[in-house]
Amino acid sequence: NDLIHTGGRWLVRIVVLLALTLWTASFFAGALRDIQRPVGYLVSAVILTIGITGLLKLLTNIDCPWDLSEFGGRRPYVGLLSGRPDGLAAGHCFPAAHASSGYAFMALYFLAYERSRTLARVGLAVGLCLGAIFGLAQQSRGAHFASHDLWSAFLGWMIPLTLYAFAFGGRLYAGSQR
After folding, report:
1. What is the pTM of this model?
2. pLDDT at residue 10 tops 60
3. Measured in Å, how far apart are the chain's first and last C-alpha atoms?
4. For helices 117-141 and 7-25, what crossing angle results, to 10°?
5. Residue 102 and residue 9: Cα distance in Å, rounded?
6. For residues 153 and 7, what is the distance between their CA atoms, to the nearest angstrom?
7. How far apart are CA 92 and CA 148, in angstroms?
8. What confidence score (pLDDT) does residue 151 get?
9. Other C-beta atoms lying within 10 Å of the C-beta of residue 36
10. How would you class 142 by CB atoms within 10 Å of its CB: exposed for 0-12, middle for 13-18, buried for 19 or more?
């Protein structure tokens, strides 16, 4: 709990804060101007992935395993598209936010893609490993099912991909060619 859950949360916050600071500095320091767009992309991709996942947690109304009666909790299982019984508190567990904060770093793939395919694959591996570590830690605590983490991985890929392809037009660096 302390190392992976709390420590992981702080790791993501610190990395995003450092990237946001670097992006802000790029508006004032001419030497950093070339990284303004790529770092802006990374910050946007990570924050959007975490934010959209958080919003979905509020909307999907799915309970955590530890809340379900089958696993020692007090709530009955209610499917994703099923009506929730009156008086049953809302569930806020799907998709997995902690795992998505790790999977959000799959954006590193797109950050490096135009410069080095090898570095892009390393960036993808970093995001996949971080998300898997965060997700497995939460599953071991009873906070999520594997399906919650798989959907988080899907979001962690699709949101940065969509942002890269549409908002940034597949170009993060000046002079890059497809």
Report:
1. 0.92
2. yes
3. 43
4. 150
5. 9
6. 20
7. 11
8. 97
9. 17
10. middle
DSSP string, the chain: -IIIIIHHHHHHHHHHHHHHHHHHHTTT-GGGGGGHHHHHHHHHHHHHHHHHHHHHHHHH----GGGBGGGT-SB----TTSPPPTTPPPP--SS-HHHHHHHGGGHHHHHHHTT-HHHHHHHHHHHHHHHHHHHHHHHHHTS--HHHHHHHHHHHHHHHHHIIIIISTT--STT---
Residues in Cβ contact with 59 at an 8 Å cutoff, skipping those fewer than 6 apart: none
Mean predicted confidence (pLDDT) in 58-70: 94
Closest CA to 103 of 72, 78, 134, 75: 134
Q: Which two tokens stand for residue 62?
A: 């799915």
Token pair in block for residue 155: 């979001």
62 and 91 Cβ atoms separated by less than 8 Å: yes
